[in-house]
């Protein structure tokens, strides 16, 4: 295992552990605040934190499993465990949104004055500070590792920041004499949480379905191939993500008069250059013999050249 891989593993486990710890702390303080105030908005935040803790535990288990090296039964590794964890998080978050919506509607039908609003506001400020620190750390880990599970976890913790800010505003409004605001804001929170669940679930499902990698990945690979003057073109480029591993497959056109040894050496140089640009990538290159006459490397998405070819 490389030093980069070991550092990534440590960061992932640390981020997953921090997420579980933060969720458990927030559950305790929000439960105390809810019992003192009776606010359904605080209850909404408490339920959300309870779901966070469960999701974070699932994340922790999934990340540990995804770090297991490839074996005879899983030749491509265990990276998709992260996408499964993200899908599980989406289901949990959606369930909590439905529960919150029900409680919000009941509160709107029977609004009640709140007690100890100062305590509730203090708890929300504490939650914002703690959650904000966790999100910043998670964003750092995502930049270093590209983890799908940590990204999903970070997304709903980031949504918690908006929720907590909304609850502070709600408690102030209720304190000013508008108890019906509690139920209204709780319902808005439920809708917001449901939207986050959809986003998490959609991304996780697309990873499980081997969706093409987004962004400029294809253009960067094309530029790398084009930098090798002996490469006459490329086509059938395919990419997919499995956890943090990027799988890249492509055909590179080479002069048909080139020796097998030279063709292999060229393919290896291209593969190593792609690995330099994408350290977490597994690259498979198929050498295609074609007549000479160098041409500009092409991508099958921009030209019909060689469509239908397979590895």
TrEMBL record:
Transmembrane region(s): 12-34, 83-101, 116-137, 157-178, 184-202
Membrane topology: Multi-pass membrane protein
Keyword Transport: yes
Location of the protein in the cell: Membrane
Gene3D superfamilies in the cross-refs: Cation efflux protein transmembrane domain, Cation efflux protein, cytoplasmic domain
Keyword Chloroplast listed: no
Domain Cation efflux protein cytoplasmic: start-end pairs: 214-289
Location of the region described as Disordered in the Swiss-Prot/TrEMBL record: 289-311
Top-rank taxon: Bacteria
Cited InterPro entries: Cation_efflux, Cation_efflux_CTD, Cation_efflux_CTD_sf, Cation_efflux_TM, Cation_efflux_TMD_sf, CDF_Transporter
Domain Cation efflux protein transmembrane: 18-209
Keywords (A to Z) from UniProt: Cell membrane, Ion transport, Iron, Iron transport, Membrane, Transmembrane, Transmembrane helix, Transport, Zinc, Zinc transport
Family recorded in the similarity comment: Belongs to the cation diffusion facilitator (CDF) transporter (TC 2.A.4) family. FieF subfamily.
Name under which the protein is recorded: Cation efflux family protein
């Amino acid at each position: 295992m490389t030093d980069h891989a070991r550092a990534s593993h440590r960061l992932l486990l640390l981020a997953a552990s921090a997420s579980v710890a933060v969720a458990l702390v927030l559950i305790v303080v929000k439960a105390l605040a809810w019992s003192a105030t009776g606010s359904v908005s605080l209850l909404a935040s408490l339920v959300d934190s309870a779901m966070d803790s469960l999701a974070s535990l699932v994340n922790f288990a999934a990340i540990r499993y995804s770090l297991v090296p490839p074996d005879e039964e899983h030749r491509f590794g265990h990276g998709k465990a992260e996408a499964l964890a993200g899908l599980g998080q989406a289901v949990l978050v959606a369930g909590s949104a439905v529960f919150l919506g029900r409680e919000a509607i009941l509160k709107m039908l029977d609004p009640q004055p709140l007690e100890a609003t100062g305590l509730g506001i203090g708890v929300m400020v504490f939650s914002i500070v703690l959650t904000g620190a966790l999100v910043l750390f998670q964003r750092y880990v995502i930049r270093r590792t590209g983890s799908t599970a940590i990204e999903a976890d970070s997304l709903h913790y980031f949504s918690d920041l908006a929720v907590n800010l909304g609850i502070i505003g709600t408690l102030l409004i209720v304190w000013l004499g508008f108890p019906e605001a509690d139920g209204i804001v709780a319902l808005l929170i439920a809708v917001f949480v449901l939207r986050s669940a959809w986003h998490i679930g959609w991304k996780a499902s697309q990873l499980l379905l081997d969706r093409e990698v987004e962004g400029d990945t294809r253009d960067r690979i094309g530029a790398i191939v084009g930098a090798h003057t002996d490469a006459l073109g490329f086509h059938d480029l395919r990419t997919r993500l499995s956890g943090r591993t990027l799988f890249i497959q492509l055909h590179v056109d080479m002069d048909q008069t080139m020796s097998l040894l030279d063709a292999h050496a060229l393919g290896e140089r291209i593969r190593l250059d792609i690995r330099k640009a994408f350290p977490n990538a597994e690259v498979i290159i198929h050498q295609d013999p074609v007549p000479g006459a160098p041409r500009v490397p092409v991508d099958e998405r921009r030209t019909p050249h060689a469509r239908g070819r397979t590895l």
